[in-house]
Amino acid sequence: MISQIERHVKHSEFDQALALLPMLHQVFADHTELSHVITQLQQDLLAHNQDSLKTLQHLKHVIVG
């Protein structure tokens, strides 16, 4: 799912990336730090911000540990 979001962002398809976030929120609902990063990603995507890729990298880092 994260790779799909990343592809959408790289192609400036922010709305398609946003459509995947509810599932991501649901998967990580019990993890506070991930929820915060996902919320930041949502804000970046809503602003059509290319920093979304940096936020995605941060998300991957938090997941992997």
Structure description:
This protein is 78% helix and 0% strand. Helix 1 runs antiparallel to helix 2, helix 2 (14-27) packs antiparallel against helix 3 (32-46) and helix 3 (32-46) runs antiparallel to helix 4. It has 65 residues and is an all-alpha fold. The protein contains four helices and no strands.
In short:
The chain has 4 helices and no strands.
Radius of gyration, Cα only, in angstroms? 11 Å
Order of helices and strands: HHHH
**How many helices in DSSP terms?**
4
Fraction of helical residues: over 70%
Characteristic key phrases:
65 residues; mainly alpha; globular
Question: Strands, helices and their partners?
Answer:
Elements lengths: L1 H9 L3 H14 L4 H15 L5 H13 L1
Helix pairs in contact: 1-2, 1-4, 2-3, 3-4
